Each structure stands twice: as structure tokens, then as C-alpha cells.
Fold:
Amino acid sequence: MFVLDGVVVYSASDLAAAARCEYALLRAFDARLGRGPKTDADDDLLARTARLGDEHEQRHLDELRAEVGDNAVVIGRPAHTRDGLIAAADATQDAVSRRAPVIVQAAMSDGRFVGFADFLVLDDGGYRLRDTKLARSVKVTALLQLAAYADALGRTGVPILDDVELALGNGTLMSYPVGELLPVYRSRRQVLQELLDTHLAGGQAVRWGDESVRACLRCPECQVQIDAYGDVLLVAGLRTTQRARMIDAGITTLTQLAAHRGSIPGLSAAMSARLSLQARLQKDSPVKGVPAYEVVNPDALCGLPSPSPGDLFFDFEGDPLWTADGHHWGLEYLFGVLEASNEFTPFWAHDRRQERQALRD
Structure:
């Protein structure tokens, strides 16, 4: 999202981000507006995922080019200027009018929404809208993006077929009727547009705890604030539904819950007592940020077996993003055995053959 001539312009990715966490979206918006620090921290896993996603899209493009030769039209990503966006959208319309068999990064812009669809594939007199996703299962946010592209392109007269497609990371091609997606998309778009316009007009950075902004309470941006404010969600075992009950009761931090005595409306007396005790244990623990424990029945510990020289601790590590062909994913790359003598034996694997041998070993 960005501001162009005083108007917020947003994309399908912003729509997906808002569906995940409005608070994180507005934090990113604040960074672009100069109201807050940059939020895009360096993340090797995200960078690798993005690279794998690009490779997956390129493989699909190579498959399409094998069918249509050099007739695929690639629309370049424009600068975020009004002229640049209009030029890219015009180039897409020109490719459609020439009946190009495949259009890559089809551009669209209506002054508020800007989008770039991975592929338009000519089929049966119209264009089949297709997006590539590295995921091996369909996510709602991916369907919202497809609906956004279908709606925007359809409004400009591009003949979009009734079914839109997702090319998943395992090679599966999933099809969905766009008519079932559009009502949800249009509702979400209206909510997003009002959220961004209101935030821009407000002139202030988003505030943690603003009830008008939905926070997912799980993403890195939320976690920063949970840690900074000592949010009650830091209490081990506490669920978000219980947090809502506590906020209604005026208990918003771990420290406040630790000091609380008695029941909490909406929670049982036993649950209230258990969570309050957990908060006190964590508050008084010398090691911060981890669960703390109290032994309530020492006799139960006697049921544990005594240490034995033959004890082994076995663990294995996997990489879900490993792939050799872009269709089959995941590799258990390390099997490790720790003996009672503290001797550690690793079994490494860098491909399928080595993985099989490591498991046998």
C-alpha cells in the first residue's frame, strides 16, 4: 500500500495482510508514512520462501511457454506512479485485445486498487485467471487475491472465465467458481479501504489495544507489543478467549493477573485460580519469558524411572521447504542420538537417498 496524490492505493497482498492481522498491516503503513519504524525485519526463512515462490512461478511459466512458444506476453512491474500504473494496465489491455495466449503479471488499477495477476491463460474464448502459490493447500487469503484480480479485470472488460485457478506447490491445480468468492472479497475490500482511509486521516500511529483494530495476537508485530506491555497473554496456557474475559474485568497485564485474587467473570473459579497462580509463578521467576512450574504433588515424581546407562534421547529435524523437483517437499535432514554418557551421534541427510540411509543407520 502507498499514498498517491493524497489517496491510499492498496493491493491484493494488503487485502490478505488485513485478513491476517489489521494491527500488523497498520504498523507497516505507519512505517511508510513516516509515523513509525520499519517493520520488515530481515528474516532468512521469509527470504527463502519468497525465492522458492519465484522459482515455482517460473517453473509454471516454463510449462506454459512450452505450449505457446514465444507468444506469452510479460507485463513488467511499473513504478508506483499514476503514469506507471496506467501504462502497465494499458499494456495488459493491449495484450488482451491481441488475444495473447498467455499474459504474465497482468496489471490492473482503478485508482484505489492495484494488482498483478500471475497468469491469464486464453481458453475457450476467455481468459482463465491463474495464480501460483508455494503452499500445498489452499488458503482463504489466496482465494481473496484471485477474486480481487477477477473483479478488477472484469470491470475493465477482460473476459474472465467463471472458474479461477491456483497452481499449488505440489503441482496440484485447484479450481474455484469466482462467483462464490466475489461477495466475500467486495465486503473485505470495503472494510480494508475504510480502515486505511480512516488511519491516514487520523494522523497518528496505530495504538496497541485500539479496539477498532483487530490484532491477531500471534504475528511478530503483535508479539513485540505483547512483550513490551507485559500483556496477560504471556501467561503460559492462557487462551485468547480467556484474555478477552480478563480485559473485560480490567486485567490486561501479567502483573495485574498475578495480583488478582478471586474469580474472574466468564471463567470458572478453578480456572481463575490456576491462571492467577501461573501468573504469580512467572512474575517471581528469575528466568523471564518462559513458563514456571510449582510441584503440587512430589510423590508423583517418584513414579518416574531412575536414570539408566542405556537411556537414549532421540530427536530429528526436518526442512518442510526442501524440494528437488518443485513437486515433492520436505526432508528429514538430521537424526540425532544423545546417550547417557553425553555422547552425541548425528545422522545427516542432504537428499532423499541420504535420508533413507540415515533412517536405516
Notes: The mean pLDDT is 91. The radius of gyration is 26 Å. Residues 1 and 10 are 4 Å apart (CA to CA). The chain has twelve helices and eleven strands.
